[in-house]
Amino acid sequence: MEAQSARTLVDDDGWFESFEIGQRWRHARGATVDEVENQMLTKLVMNSAQEHWNDASMQGSEWGSTRIVFGLITGSLTIGLASQDTAEQAIKELGLDAIRFTASVYHGDSIYAYTEVLEKRDSDRDDAGVVVFQHWGATSEGKQVFECRRSVLIKRHSHWSLS
After folding, report:
1. Is 0.90 surpassed by the pTM of this model?
2. 144-155 and 110-122 as β-strands: parallel, antiparallel, unpaired?
3. In angstroms, how far is the first alpha carbon of the chain from the final one?
């Protein structure tokens, strides 16, 4: 999960040509997970696990004494933080694979996203190519909490740029 640098790709606008296999970085922004995100989304998707809703049920549990953040919030936040650098020129999301929740997240934890470019290939469109990213989410203490592989169809600078 170590990044080569703490830079972002936004200055380059994230075209297909911008990415190189093996390239790694930590994205510039982080976000703190508050109770509102956990409660709202967990209830909207009707996840009724008491570990997300009920402080009393957590007392003395193997996970600690406070509610756990719903994993899909952690995953969505990680991908969202990575999107500034990996989806500015996206045409569409093609898939998420190898999704893993590797540690619990709690209200007040700050999440940071890391990315590695795993694959880059032509697509069936002349104006775009496919980039496969490995994303990780980690707390401010460096504890990895999430990982996934994400495939994105990204515009080619040579076809879309006005400059």
Report:
1. no
2. unpaired
3. 35
Tell me, letter by letter, the H, E, C secondary structure of the chain.
Answer: CCCCCCCCCHHHCCCHHHCCCCCEEEEEEEEECCHHHHHHHHHHCCCCCHHHHCHHHHCCECCECCCECCHHHHHHHHHHHHHHHHCCCEEEEEEEEEEEECCCCECCCEEEEEEEEEEEEECCCCCEEEEEEEEEEEECCCCEEEEEEEEEEEECHHHHCCC
What does the alpha-carbon distance between residue 99 and residue 84 come to, in Å, rounded to a whole number?
20
Q: Which candidate, 98, 81, 74, 85, places its Cα nearest to that of 150?
A: 98
Question: Which token pair is 88?
Answer: 């500015």
CB 133 within 8 A of CB 116: yes
Give me the tens of pLDDT residue by residue for the chain, a chain 163 residues long. Answer: 555 444 444 456 789 999 999 999 999 999 999 988 888 888 888 888 888 888 888 888 887 778 899 999 999 999 999 999 999 999 999 999 999 999 999 999 999 999 999 999 999 999 999 999 999 999 999 999 999 999 999 999 888 776 5
Instruction: Please tell me the distance from the alpha carbon of residue 21 to that of residue 19, in angstroms, as a whole number.
Output: 7
C-alpha separations of 46 from 5, 43, 92 in Å: 40, 5, 27
